[in-house]
Write a structure and sequence with these properties.
single chain; binds thiamine diphosphate; binds magnesium ion; 23 strands; globular; alpha/beta
Length: 804
């Protein structure tokens, strides 16, 4: 472990020219004052919450000097100084985010959708196409859960390895220059206690990727000191076993003090160089940082730091130390530094005011429009007094927000309900216009709004002829993946047992030896960072297929999918995309951890992703093909029991696609519509044949994708014919089936066409018991389906269908 001390000053070095040092001082000062003013804004009630980067400024100006075009940051809420230093955040934008200003130019990280301290650069043009990332300083889009920046950091770094070592990618010159890009991570000392931190560090050591992680160590995580977080109280000490040596690859570990400017410059420069040239991962433990204003606006640090610590923090404040350094090295005198500080303060004030004006004027304008319209409506209304009162109260609101305006207008429209349409027409038209604007401000971009939207992928039917051979389902996938690896150099897959044996069900059998280890690779057992590897590489223009061996183990990775992937397009308002495809397998098998079908969990947490539930491998291959033509992230859940079932090999493999969001009618019928998906399709089809024998004809629909759900209204059309519906799956009661029912009842308006109560067929509420009998008594069987349908028909016509 190397402890970087101050090195002899070399004023000839570009990093240490007098101007450069003073520029760093200026940025640090601007950032400090932005933090101080930001906190006051919250206490004045102009913003709801604030978390700031004070105390961490010096390390970040030094990091910025080592950061190069094409590099990526994945960090956390303390990094404002770095963002200022690389020129990807203006002070005005910083305050715009604090106020939650929804204008994307004013607040390019999240268009007001995230609380302050969540940084991001925009990788995409307005039409959703990629910018040239090699000509930009890039920051992945931050998320709040501590340490969750780590898994995708691994992927961002892994992309450099692929770009350097996979010659097939050399033409993708807008994403990488020979894999020279470093992925720089930042994390707080306390957050290193999270499992995903260690998982990411271990994976980086195994993969040898250019990942530099800086731990900002201020001794605390909110109120809890290091002794409660980390064995030996030191993250660099506990990571010593990962350290590389002459004999073994590993991680370079550097320790440096957060107030020592030259040492910091040196540490980041040498870490950057090592990672960039040799793809060696580096951990920089930045010690002795402070937190002058405490953790956030939620409380004061006087509650948990004693006076000795508070005094120490004052003395060792990195900006105070930087000032001493500049003075003692005669780089500038006190007057010059005071002048820089005065100017920094003035700039922050001016930019803050500009941000506030832009934000508040937009709302005031809306408020004024509403007041005028309310008064006009009052004029024609029989309830004049009430409407005028709403207008007057609205016009007096201090620091109004949009909600104030909309509440008043909606109350007024309710009050005006008995008046003539003419009295309220203008107000109503304005209200509807605002609804559209507000939808765009607060609700848009859950899914891609670009030409690469999954919904826009053209459907190409699979073709077969009489000679099409019957093969094991897995062979269809294997042939499809082989073709795709051949055709698209951006496509690659990785996961547990995916490389050498070609996955546990052999859909990639032989493909590693054919296409190479970089295209089809084994990973450690680490679902969380498998997803992270996928996110980071997708953020850099690649098309990863990340494999989670069994659906039951998605739980380890679902947090990253939910917190990061699923909401990426939404939270950046189309500024970034990560078209990661997760491949996994589930449904029928046996036992608590090998047969789950937790679709409710997936449907609740992964809004923003496409959820594909193919009934067989032919459909799965068509879905993968469609997904690769779109820019949306997706999960495909293959049927665990389907790999060895026989299917006909399509003639146009690699060309045909399955329309995403389009159910397929598997069997036509007249009496009941049975809506299902995945492995249940077989069971329901078997039940349908038996029911036909006793004279009941059910229509069976495979929804194919749960998100999006039946955008064509195919289920509704069927119910209009049969007037009865049952939703069936293998999930617990009230989960996947409840979702399907809600979608059909509310979105397809079929209630009035129903002659019987809509019903569900599900598994038991517990996880399935082991063995074939365990399956039979836990999950819905053919008999269960038959009996449910029969009972329904009995209710309709007890004479024709007497009780069993
Ligand atoms: C997974 C998760 N747990 C808890 C929190 C709440 N939280 C926010 S910041 C924080 C402390 C982080 O401390 P540290 O990593 O040392 O960073 P610092 O704020 O000191 O820079 C906690 C517990 C969170 N955001 N995410
Ligand atoms: Mg801390």
């Amino acid at each position: 472990m190397s402890e970087v001390q101050s090195v002899p000053k070399n004023l000839n070095s570009p990093n240490l020219s007098k101007e450069a040092v003073l520029e760093d001082f200026r940025i640090a000062m601007i950032s400090r004052h932005a933090s101080l003013v930001g906190r006051k804004e919250v206490f004045m009630g102009k913003a709801k919450f604030g978390i700031f980067g004070d105390g961490k400024e010096l390390a970040q100006v030094a990091l910025a000097r080592a950061f190069q075009l094409g590099d990526f940051r994945s960090g956390y809420y303390r990094d404002q100084t770095f963002m200022f230093a690389i020129g990807e955040l203006t002070v005005q934008q910083y305050f715009a985010q604090l106020y939650a200003y929804t204008n994307v130019t004013a607040e390019p990280a999240s268009a007001g959708r995230l609380m302050n301290g969540h940084f991001a650069t925009r990788s995409l043009n307005e039409d959703g196409s990629w910018k040239d990332l090699t000509k930009k300083y890039n920051s992945a889009a931050d998320i709040s859960p501590t340490a969750a920046q780590m898994p995708k950091l691994l992927g961002l770094a892994y992309a450099s390895k692929l770009y350097r070592e996979n010659k097939g990618l050399k033409d993708l010159s807008t994403f990488s220059v020979n894999g020279n890009e470093v992925a720089w991570g930042t994390i707080g000392n306390a957050s290193t206690s999270e499992g995903m931190f260690y998982e990411s560090i271990n994976a980086a050591g195994v993969l040898q990727v250019p990942m530099v992680v800086s731990v900002w160590d201020d001794g605390y995580g909110i109120s809890v000191p290091n002794e409660y977080h980390t064995t030996k109280g030191s993250i660099s000490e506990v990571l010593a076993g990962f350290e590389r040596s002459d004999a073994q690859k590993g991680i370079e570990i550097i320790r440096v003090k957060g107030w020592d400017y030259e040492a910091l410059l040196n540490a980041f420069a040498s870490a950057g160089e090592l990672a960039r040239t040799s793809h060696v991962p580096v951990l920089i433990h930045v010690l002795e940082l402070t937190q002058p204003q405490g953790h956030s606006t939620s409380g004061s640090h006087e509650r948990y730091k004693d006076s000795k610590r508070l005094q120490w923090e004052k003395e060792w404040d990195c900006i105070a130390k930087f000032r001493e350094y500049i003075l003692s090295n005669k780089i500038a005198n006190a007057d010059a530094l005071d002048k820089i500080e005065t100017e920094a303060k003035a700039l922050v004030k001016q930019e803050k005011e500009a941000a506030w004006s832009a934000f508040s004027n937009e709302i005031k304008k809306e408020l004024n429009e509403a007041v005028v319209l309310l008064k006009a409506a009052a004029h024609h209304s029989t309830r004049k007094v009430l409407i005028n009162q709403l207008a007057d109260e609205l016009s007096k609101t201090i620091n109004p927000i949009r909600k104030d305006v909309m509440v008043a207008v909606r109350k007024a429209l309710l009050t005006l309900r008995l008046d003539s349409p003419a009295a309220k027409a203008d107000l109503k038209a304005w209200y509807e216009k605002q609804n559209d604007l507000n939808f765009d401000r607060y609700n848009s971009h859950l899914y891609s709004q670009t030409e690469w939207s999954a919904l826009k992928v053209e459907e190409v039917p699979a073709q077969f002829n009489d000679n099409s051979p019957l093969v094991d389902g897995r062979e269809i996938l294997q042939s499809y993946f082989d073709l795709t690896l051949e055709k698209d150099p951006r496509f690659f897959t990785f996961g547990e047992d995916v490389g050498k044996i070609g996955d546990v069900n052999q859909a990639f059998a032989g493909l590693q030896s054919k296409h190479g280890e970089l295209r089809v690779s084994d990973t450690g057992i680490r679902e969380c960072t498998i997803i992270g590897q996928g996110i980071g590489t997708a953020l850099r223009g690649l098309r990863p297929l990340a494999e989670i061996q069994y659906l039951d183990y998605l739980l380890y990775g679902i947090q990253m999918l939910s917190d990061d992937v699923a909401c990426l397009n939404y939270r950046t308002k189309g500024g970034q995309k990560a078209p990661l495809i997760v491949r996994t397998r589930g449904h029928r098998l046996e036992g608590v951890w090998h047969s789950g079908s937790p679709m409710g969990m997936i449907l609740s947490t992964l809004r923003g992703m496409i959820v594909c539930v193919p009934r067989d491998m032919t459909q799965a291959a068509g879905m993968y093909n469609a997904l690769l033509k779109s820019d949306e992230p997706a999960i495909v859940i293959e049927c665990l029991n389907g790999y060895r079932l026989k299917e006909q090999m399509p003639l146009n493999l690699g060309e045909y696609t399955v329309a995403l969001g389009k159910p397929e009618v598997l069997r036509e019928g007249t009496e009941v519509t049975l809506v299902t998906y995945g492995s249940m399709c077989r069971i329901v089809m078997e039940a349908a044949s038996e029911l036909a024998e006793i004279g009941i004809n059910i229509e069976v629909i495979d929804v194919q994708t749960l998100l999006p759900f039946d955008v064509y209204g195919i289920v509704g059309k069927s119910i209009k014919k049969t007037n009865r519906v049952i939703f069936a799956d293998e999930d617990v009661p009230g989960a996947g089936t409840a979702f399907m029912m809600q979608q059909v009842l509310e979105r397809q308006e079929i209630f009035k066409f129903l002659d019987s109560e809509p019903q569900t067929i599900t598994a038991q509420a517990h996880r399935p018991a082991y063995s074939s009998d365990g399956d039979y008594f836990s999950k819905p069987s053919v008999e269960d389906v038959i009996e449910k349908v029969y009972a329904l028909m009995h209710e309709v016509d007890p004479k024709k269908y007497p009780a069993i």
